[in-house]
Design goal:
InterPro entries: GlpE_sulfurtransferase, Rhodanese-like_dom, Rhodanese-like_dom_sf, Thiosulf_sulfurTrfase. The chain is of the alpha/beta class and 109 residues long. The chain has a single domain, classed as Oxidized Rhodanese, domain 1. The chain is 38% helix and 19% strand. The chain is built from five helices and seven strands. The strands form two sheets. Strands 1-6-5-2-4 form a five-stranded parallel β-sheet. Strands 3-7 form a two-stranded antiparallel sheet. It is globular and about 30 Å long.
C-alpha cells in the first residue's frame, strides 16, 4: 500500500503547477472564505464520488487548516489506492501567507 508524503508549500506550489489535484478538507465556511485556487472541497458527503472519479495515479495534495488533519486524510486516501499523496505542511494558513494571490474566495476557482 502507498503511504502519503509531507510537503512544504514551495514544493506543493510546484506540484500544483504541474497539475496535481488539490483537495481541501476544511469545513465549508472556511473553504468558501478562502482556498487554494483550483482546490476541490472534500468532505464525507463528496468523498465516495471523488474516489470513484479520480485518477488514482495522479499526484494528490491534501490541505487542512495547519497541516495536521490533512495527514490523517492523506493516509486514508493512500490506503484507498491513491499512489502519490501529499499532506501540505502548514496547511492553508501557511499557503495563504506565502501565496495570497493564489487564493480563491467563495466557490470560485
Amino acid at each position: 500500500m502507498s503511504e502519503f508524503k509531507r510537503i512544504d508549500p514551495v514544493s506543493a506550489h510546484s506540484l500544483r503547477l504541474d497539475g496535481a489535484t488539490v483537495v481541501d478538507i476544511r469545513d465549508p465556511h472556511s473553504f468558501a472564505n478562502g482556498h487554494i485556487r483550483g482546490a476541490r472541497h472534500l468532505d464525507n458527503h463528496s468523498l465516495a464520488d471523488f474516489i470513484a472519479s479520480a485518477d488514482l495515479d495522479a499526484p494528490l495534495l491534501v490541505v487542512c487548516y495547519h497541516g495536521n488533519s490533512s495527514q490523517s486524510a492523506a493516509a486514508y486516501l493512500a490506503h484507498q489506492g491513491f499512489s502519490d499523496v501529499y499532506s501540505l505542511d502548514g496547511g492553508f494558513e501557511l499557503w495563504n501567507s506565502r501565496y495570497p494571490d493564489e487564493v480563491a474566495r467563495g466557490q470560485d476557482d
